[in-house]
Amino acid sequence: MTLDDVPAVGVLEHQLFPIDAWPVQMFLDELSQPETRRYLVAETSDGIVGYAGLMCIEPIADVQTIAVVPAYEGRGIGSTLLTQLIEEARRRWATEVLLEVRADNPRAQQLYVRFGFEQIHVRARYYRDGVDALIMRLQLAAPETEGHEATEAGQA
Description:
This protein has helices at 6-16, 24-31, 77-91, 106-114; strands spanning 37-44, 47-57, 60-68, 96-102, 118-123, 133-139, 144-145, 148-149. The radius of gyration is 16 Å and the shape is globular. The protein is of the alpha+beta class and 156 residues long.
């Protein structure tokens, strides 16, 4: 995602998440922090049809947002975006990836489960309309350090 993408992403954000839409300024703020953030867009000839963002402050990565235009769901766009976010988390030495998902969004929950995420907590009435958020976590393999596989304790 570039600064030029933000207006179109802002329009999609308000269409896809009318209750909990991020203000455009939030995307601008996120893009201004490349040392801890990575944002992506999926584009077709129709324009931007998906976007996603990750915050990573070692050792935790957090999926900030992921969205696909409904007409493009089921084409692997969400999977591709999520794969790229997980790869980015690994590049940034994260040991786990966290995310919140609406309790009333089984399609997204199924995607995350397919990628190995497990529900670890519920945030009651997290969203503005009172829906709970499910907190999900993906444990990443410990990165190799100087040719030695790190132990679970984090020692090389």
